[in-house]
Design brief:
Elements: H1 8-12, E1 15-17, H2 21-29, H3 37-74, H4 81-118, H5 136-143, H6 146-172, H7 174-178, H8 185-225, E2 228-229, H9 230-241, H10 244-265, E3 271-274, E4 279-284, E5 294-300, H11 302-313, E6 317-320, H12 322-331, H13 343-359
Parallel strand pairs: 3-6
Antiparallel strand pairs: 1-2, 3-4, 4-5
Length: 360
């Protein structure tokens, strides 16, 4: 009879678990976030064309000024090194006046779109060169992956819809376009600018609508890529909470330190009440600073024996009282005052201790 061996570790390595908060935080620090480039492109285009819609008339005057100076002045000057330098400098300044506001609108759009998707994030890790990025085998896998197919279909859809929007706007304004050959340069520039802005705004709105679906897909793909196996979740939990063996050692060390501090308080006690062999409770009382006697140490068996040994070494009075020792051990913790119901019994013990010390 044949048996089929199954490696159970295979199942533990399957990435079926959602990413933990720590994994998400580490991934974010690396610059890996759910982000759609289409959202960035669409919002940047919308900001630029809205800027042109509202402020295009001011830019038109600057553009016409460039043409006017070029055709009226620059064609008449002599061609020398100095004249060309001055001409290029002047044209660069005029072009900057036109382009810089557009660039500023694009930058604002980029910041807004990134903030909407990932919030505030500054990291240089995505800029670090990684050899696997230039690996031809990995590159071929990316080219023929399901993600590449989705990107191809997405690009074809965008080209088709943008073409439809552009054609529709031109068709609706075909009469204005046909009259451009008989209009003035100022009117021609105004009509072309108006049509361009309209095509840009409507195309941007359409791209924003499409980019919503792309962002949903990118979010899904990102969540799938950062999934963790059950073993990875366990390992991460161990790193966060600490290895159980190390934690037990830390607790043991803390217990030892607490024990040492407790034993250091025994010589300062006024009395140690014992069982006599199983329980030992050390009490201290100062009329000026304490409202009631305080438990400074307690223990059973070996610890009780150690408390009594230290008390004997430091001439602390030891009183045997079985019921009181058990009651104090059960009712009060180290640092607590004696419970009210035990005041009378403790007071009698302390009175005995004080009388004993006076006789000594």
């Amino acid at each position: 009879m044949a048996y089929l061996k199954i490696d159970l570790q295979f199942f533990s390595q399957e990435k079926t678990e959602k990413a933990t908060p720590k994994k998400r935080q580490d991934t974010r620090k690396e610059g890996r976030v759910a982000k759609s480039a289409d959202v960035n492109t669409a919002i940047i285009l919308l900001f630029v064309f809205l800027f042109l819609w509202f402020f295009g008339s001011f830019l038109r005057e600057d553009i016409l000024k460039i043409f006017e100076i070029s055709f009226n002045e620059y064609v008449l000057i002599g061609v020398t090194e100095q004249s060309i330098r001055l001409m290029m400098t002047d044209l660069s300044i005029q072009a900057a006046k036109v382009l810089l506001p557009i660039f500023l609108a694009a930058i604002i759009g980029a910041l807004v779109s990134n903030y909407m998707q990932v919030g505030v994030l500054f990291t240089t890790k995505p800029l670090i060169l990684k050899l696997e990025r230039i690996n031809p085998i990995q590159g071929a896998k990316r080219m023929f992956s399901a993600r590449a197919l989705v990107e191809l279909l997405k690009a074809m859809l965008k080209i088709t819809l943008v073409g439809v929007v552009t054609f529709t706007i031109l068709w609706l304004h075909k009469e204005e376009v046909f009259r451009l050959t008989s209009t003035s340069p100022n009117t021609t520039l105004a009509v072309i600018g108006n049509l361009t802005v309209k095509m840009g705004v409507f195309t941007s709105i359409l791209l924003i609508f499409l980019s919503i679906f792309d962002y949903v897909y990118q979010k899904y793909d990102f969540e799938k890529n950062i999934r963790m196996s059950k073993q990875e979740v366990k390992d991460e939990y161990k790193k966060i909470e600490g290895d159980p063996l190390i934690k037990s050692k830390i607790k043991e060390r803390q217990k030892q330190m607490a024990m040492q501090r407790m034993m250091q308080e025994v010589p300062k006690a006024d009395v140690v009440i014992t069982n006599p062999t199983h329980f030992a409770v050390a009490l201290k009382y100062d009329e000026e600073t304490m409202e009631a006697p305080q438990v400074v140490a307690k223990g059973v068996d070996y610890i009780a024996l150690k408390i009594k040994t230290i008390a004997e070494t430091n001439d602390v009075v030891i009183v045997e009282n079985r019921h009181l020792a058990r009651a104090l051990y059960k009712e009060a913790e180290i640092g607590d005052t004696v419970p009210e119901q035990l005041f009378q019994a403790v007071a009698e013990v302390l009175a005995y201790v004080y009388r004993l010390k006076q006789k000594i």
